[in-house]
Specification:
By secondary structure, this protein is α/β, with parallel strands linked by helices. The protein has 2 domains: 62 residues, Phospho-2-dehydro-3-deoxyheptonate aldolase, domain 1 (Alpha-Beta Plaits); 251 residues, Aldolase class I (TIM Barrel), CATH 3.20.20. Helix content is 32%, strand content 18%. The protein has an 8-stranded parallel beta sheet with strand order 13-12-11-10-9-8-7-14. It has a 4-stranded antiparallel beta sheet with strand order 2-3-1-4. Helix 3 links the parallel strand 7 and strand 8. Helix 3 crosses helix 4 and helix 9 packs parallel to helix 10. The protein is elongated and about 65 Å long. The two termini are 37 Å apart. The structure holds phosphoenolpyruvate (PEP) and manganese (II) ion. Manganese (II) ion binds next to loops.
Length: 334
């Protein structure tokens, strides 16, 4: 349930109302908008007499939120959220370019990629240390050593880093990782989501291969319900009957999620199409449709990459994409 207060409500009256609601065992989430203050009520709201609440002088309107996602709901928090990843803001006009290899392979590799993507305008470095591979015989990542190497690249370049977690027991290894990725395959690993809800790290939550947007938001809700509201949603292509591309990029996920939620939405064009030649056009589409950023795989030597070489851009290709994305952003801002 949300209660919208009248503009200019005195602080004392607002506080009295909040105390009264908390007295009914409800958690009250306050969001101060440009004009209105919105109180989000979480818990068993069946005890709240809507007519009584709505009749109060300081209350403009009261609405039940029928969707099962509350904290992630735009009705609950009408403004766009801005998530801060170690100084890099994402959302509400702040556009992020996350780039780097699918997997961290060596110190030389990750530092070189970090330097090159930074030069080309990336503001966060990606790199997988724990890799979710379809085959157990494929390269599984450098694991803890991979995280160490990412931290070296962070030190060398100043870029914040994002890496995927697959097991909550690994959380101590992610202490200095700036943003934690939950991959598509773990989008509904609810125990993992609950653990991440107990941290205060920004979480990059990728949409599952066959999950609806509502399910994605319910997964975000798991993290937020635990107290961590720093969630960034990522559309990375879904499984359809089409096999020409690795997945099918659902570009409409961006405007849809933005209607449904206040959380930032970014797009991963690399996993979406699986072919480097298609990544630029998908990145441009993502930018034009209002995404808050991109996460793109970039490799120093895509042909010899340990993982996902076919979809990885070279430095030159990423540089070109990055520039054109800036141009598109200028056009859509007009
Ligand atoms: C990745 O980012 O390398 C990855 C495995 O992504 P996804 O979970 O979207 O497949
Ligand atoms: Mn990959």
């Amino acid at each position: 349930m949300i209660a919208v207060l009248r503009p200019g409500t005195p602080a004392e009256q607002q506080e009295n109302l909040i105390n009264w609601l908390q007295g009914m065992d409800l958690k009250v989430h306050i969001s101060e908008g440009e004009f209105h203050t919105v109180l989000g009520l979480i818990g068993d709201t069946s005890r709240v007499d809507i007519d009584l609440l709505e009749g109060l002088e300081i209350v403009e309107s009261v609405r039940r939120i029928s969707e099962p996602y509350k904290k992630a709901n735009r009705k609950f928090f009408p403004d766009d959220s801005v998530i801060d990843v170690s100084g890099v803001k994402i959302g509400k006009g702040h556009f992020v370019k996350i780039a780097g290899p699918c997997s961290v392979e060596s110190e030389e590799q990750i530092i070189l990629v970090a330097q090159k993507v930074k030069e080309a305008g990336a503001n966060i470095l990606r790199g997988g240390a724990f890799k979710p591979r379809t085959s157990p015989y494929d390269f599984q990542g450098l694991k803890a050593d991979g995280i160490e190497l990412l931290l070296k690249a962070k030190q060398a370049t100043g870029l914040p880093i994002v890496s995927e977690i697959m097991n909550a027991n690994h959380l101590p290894l992610f202490e200095d990782v700036d943003m934690i990725q939950v991959g598509a395959r773990n989008m509904q690993n609810f125990e993992l989501l609950k653990e991440l809800g107990r941290t205060n790290k920004p979480i990059l939550l990728k949409r599952g291969l066959a999950n609806t947007l509502k399910e994605l938001l319910m997964s975000a809700e798991y993290i937020m319900a635990g107290g961590n509201e720093n969630v960034i949603l990522c559309e990375r292509g879904i499984r359809t009957f089409e096999t020409y591309t690795r997945n099918t990029l659902d570009v409409s996920a961006v405007p849809s999620l933005k209607e449904m939620s206040h959380l930032p939405v970014i797009i991963d064009p690399s996993h979406a199409c699986g072919h480097s030649r298609m990544v630029p056009s998908m990145a441009y589409a993502a930018t034009a449709c209002g995404a808050d950023g991109l996460i793109i795989e970039v490799h120093n030597d895509p042909k010899n990459a340990m993982c996902d070489g076919a979809q990885s851009l070279t430095f030159e290709q990423f540089d070109k994409v990055s520039r054109k994305v800036d141009e598109i952003r200028k056009v859509i801002a007009e």
